[in-house]
Amino acid sequence: MKHKDGKPYPPNKNSKKIQVTLIVVLLCGFSFYLGGIFYSEKETYATKEVNREDETPIGNSAGYLQTRGNSFTECSADYQDYTPCTDPRRWKKYGLHRLTFMERHCPPNFERKECLVPPPDGYKVPIRWPKSKNECWYRNVPYDWINKQKSNQHWLVKEGEKFIFPGGGTMFPNGVGKYVDLMEDLIPQMKDGTVRTAIDTGCGVASWGGDLLDRGILTVSLAPRDNHEAQVQFALERGIPAVLGIISTQRLPFPSNSFDMAHCSRCLIPWTEFGGVYLLEVHRILRPGGFWVLSGPPVNYENRWRGWNTTIEEQRSDYEKLQDLLTSMCFKLFNKKDDIAVWQKLTDNSCYKKLDNADNYPPKCDDGTEPDSAWYTPLRPCVVVPPATRKVKLNALAKWPERLHVAPERVSDIRGGSEGAFKHDDSKWKVRAKHYKKLLPAIGTEKVRNVMDMNTLYGGFAAALVEDPLWVMNVVSSYAANTLPVVYDRGLIGMFHDWCEAFSTYPRTYDLLHVDNLFTAESHRCEMKYVLLEMDRILRPNGYAIIRESSYFIDIVAPMAKGMRWSCREEDTEYSGQNEKILICQKKLWYSKESSL
């Protein structure tokens, strides 16, 4: 600055500092202002309508969301059957002992894929139920190993562009129907609604579970990803419930005292080895009064031993070891004929008192072993003793279908659980399911067969859809309250899972995924991007997702869904509240850029 006469003032260092400080403050404020304008415009843009030329309308066309969202890239074509936590590419990192390499081993965060899994070349919309039970498109599950190696057992047959499922298996090459007929003769409770839930260990292509569906029995078919190539994928492509899994060193992801029946048809599980831990795990998940069915070695060894590449003495010894082990853990031989033997888990707890004797083997598990802990929980060579009360026993449950809407006694074991809370939840989901069907008319039609409720409470959503031609896998978070026993007590199926990891299934295996405030509950632990990418992996092309969330999370999920090539629209809930909204989405059918089509 200058005097009035033009002479400059002597320089003032403090004044210069003040000027510089003011300039910096003004620039920061202006930048913050511009950033706020940009962000608010971005948020406004994120809730505008979706360009309908880019999306396939789903029911009512009103309320589409348009979001710029980041577009996810495509995975390479060799990831078409990618199962992140049971990936054969990573098997060499794990041991061969007890086939532990086939258990769940999820990749670390820095190895997680952030891409969309492509369908195989020539993929078609799956054949619809009930026709799918007997045939599927070859290009949807393009694996020939079973067809070549099991052709004499009639697991499946390739005819032109399709695989045909004649209903054969290792122990029932002439058809599963007659095999199950004999089983029903041995277990009359299969015919009167007493037996409702079952698990099939080493399921093949799930023909046993498929046949039981027609008889009112809901089966979880279980098999690892192994040299049989895509057993579980074949099952789900047929519309039959199945999950990837193996009894090895960890408990299966199911609660104790849950299944009414367990089955092994020459599943090659060494039941009497390693302290009998595999059979002890079956004992844990089978409810008192439930049945364990075994066909194949060593059953009927007197007539079959010659075809088993062994001696009659060895097979007799194996059978006696098996019988002794079963007796020691409180099973009794219930019935036996030809190739099928049936044992029943005793309901009288006096048998378990014998386990208090230190000389008995296997011993009783100590009080520190939580019976329902089943997420990465090591197997232990001890007997999980069921509670002495009637609430878990098979003969204490109402028969199917009455048991579906009867409040199980185990609901009182849950914090805040009661018969009143159960009845309220049951009624609530009847209203919600009715509203969902208005928003998504495909529910109840042949377009929706395989359904997953990604974070159920008591299985209310599944119960409300029980009359429709579909089945529901009810998932309970391994970090949530343990409500899965209630799901099984009412005659439904489900499993524990942590949605921070990939689910135990193949790509393209579900027609409908249902989310009820999952992101609200788990966003503090799980990155939403990976949960949505996992949903995309397991959802079939043209499949649907119903995402029920707070308005806050709906606005976040919508742009991510657009980036996965889903078409979505926002809808009101059945009560038209503003705090909670419903996002109805459909996954597009697209092909890899590497495709030869």
Automatic annotation (TrEMBL):
Q: Which PANTHER family match?
A: METHYLTRANSFERASE PMT21-RELATED, SAM-DEPENDENT METHYLTRANSFERASE
Q: Which InterPro entries match?
A: Put_SAM_MeTrfase (IPR004159), SAM-dependent_MTases_sf (IPR029063)
Q: Which UniProt keywords apply?
A: Glycoprotein, Membrane, Methyltransferase, Signal-anchor, Transferase, Transmembrane, Transmembrane helix
Where is it chiefly localized?
A: membrane
Mark the transmembrane ranges.
Answer: 20-39
Membrane topology is:
Single-pass type II membrane protein
A Gene Ontology molecular function term of the record: methyltransferase activity
UniProt-listed Enzyme Commission number(s): 2.1.1.-
Annotated compartments? Endomembrane system; Membrane
Q: Which GO terms describe its biological process?
A: methylation
Q: Which GO terms describe its cellular component?
A: endosome; membrane; trans-Golgi network
Q: Which family does it belong to?
A: Belongs to the methyltransferase superfamily.
Species, as recorded:
Solanum commersonii
> What is this protein's name?
Methyltransferase
Q: Which of the seven top EC classes does this enzyme belong to?
A: transferase
